[in-house]
Amino acid sequence: MSRSALTGSRIRERRSMMEMRQADLARHVGISASYLNLIEHNRRRIGGKLLMDIASALQIEPAALSEGAEAHLVARLREAAADGGKRTEIERVDEFAGRFPGWAELVVEKQRRIAALERTVEVLTDRLTHDPFLSAALHDILTAVASIRSTSSILVETPELEPEWRGRFQRNINEDSQRLSEASRSLVSYLDGVDDIDASSTSPQEELEAFLATHDFHFPDLEESPTEETINQLIHGVDLLRSTSAQALAVSHLTQYVQDAQRLPLTRLRSVLGTYGLDPSALAANTGVDLPLLFRRLAALPKELEYGPIGLVVCDASGTLIFRKQIEGFPLPRFGAACPLWPLFRALSQPMMPLMMDLTQAGRGAGHFRSYSIAQAVGDVSFGKSMRFEASMLVIPEEAGVEKDYELVGVSCRICPSATCGARREPSILAEGF
């Protein structure tokens, strides 16, 4: 049923909300209650003066009765239906939104809340898995608890213990208790100090990522005057780069940035982009650079060029993520344990073979992306040397409404709701029945 055919349902809904009797509304607009009943059950079309009179009596704009629920509400209901993965009467979504706008808003709001909670679980799960401070703090707490329990059991189970040994064990319990107290306070202070779980950096790689994000992954100074002094000025005294390891990673990344900018200057890249758009094959062919370098340059494009968000993920031969530029709708785990279905990892088994794949992430209804991946040797490729490979995956959002066969992938198995995935390593904490 189309939205235009649901005017009667909206009249009935509005009248019920105002606690107005059908007979009273019919009398107010000068029609019989039986005729109004037919209108309210969508058995008689309505328009013109009668629609305006009814709208006036119900204290609402006529368009709200004739046009019904806003298009964005219907669109969000469709997204919720696609995201839920359950059988829904999608062809009747307009009728549902028109007859029960309050319930429709509630469904949409609950779906939005579920999506937000899923993202929170993703971040917290990733943190518990990869946060070195949490791991160390919990290890200290468990060690102290085990030591206290062991020592106290000796004191309880050995009443004939000599005074000297009893005093020694008591001192051990006191020292272990102090350690436990300090570790607990440190852990609580750490957790209390994290206001934004997404922004917290707990490893050198994350410090580097936070530093790059503040610059939108683009460094105009290195495009114009790429010198070692410029690099040192960019990282000197930066609060985000707290550790020496993070500073070393920043120097390495910016040095690579300079080399890439020299091989493919921004002016040259801008000119070929104007001709070929975001087509990596054509861009690489017309600039004479390899695809990984081109991927890095595209991921570092300045926002003012308005090519939209472009994501980039790089992994080494072990599958560990060593670089990531995340974009909205395609969340990435914290440097490891990613979805094995990503073409990034498939590229490792097919070195030098470019792969193009259209992706959508499980549980994220509207997110559709085109990915370009390739694995290539890095470093010394001389005879007698072991070759090292790195794989790169460029991720570009697709326009909504494009009909394609999208490959369903996840973030990582632990937080992926796809119940039928044959590549699953462990049960999901989000999918019902796992």
Q: SSE string, helix = H, strand = E?
A: HHHHHHHHHHHHHHHHHEEHEEEE
Number of helices: 18
**Gyration radius, to the nearest Å?**
31 Å
- Could you list the spans in which at least 5 consecutive residues all have pLDDT below 50? 194-201
Biggest beta sheet attributes: 6 strands, mixed
Description of the structure:
- The protein is of the alpha+beta class and 434 residues long.
- The chain has 18 helices and 6 strands.
- It has helices at residues 7-17, 22-29, 33-40, 48-57, 62-66, 71-84, 93-99, 101-130, 132-157, 163-192, 204-214, 220-224, 228-235, 244-263, 266-276, 280-287, 291-299, 343-348; strands at residues 311-316, 321-325, 355-361, 368-378, 388-397, 407-409.
- A 6-stranded mixed sheet has the order 2-1-5-4-3-6.
- β1 and β2 (321-325) form a beta hairpin.
- The protein is flat.
- The protein starts with 6 loop residues before the first helix and ends in a 25-residue tail after the last strand.
- Residues 194-201 have low confidence and may be disordered.
Would you spell out the secondary-structure blueprint of this structure?
Blueprint (H helix, E strand, L loop, with lengths): L6 H11 L4 H8 L3 H8 L7 H10 L4 H5 L4 H14 L8 H7 L1 H30 L1 H26 L5 H30 L11 H11 L5 H5 L3 H8 L8 H20 L2 H11 L3 H8 L3 H9 L11 E6 L4 E5 L17 H6 L6 E7 L6 E11 L9 E10 L9 E3 L25
Parallel strand pairs: 3-6
Antiparallel strand pairs: 1-2, 1-5, 3-4, 4-5
Helix pairs in contact: 2-3, 6-8, 7-8, 9-10, 11-14, 13-14, 15-16
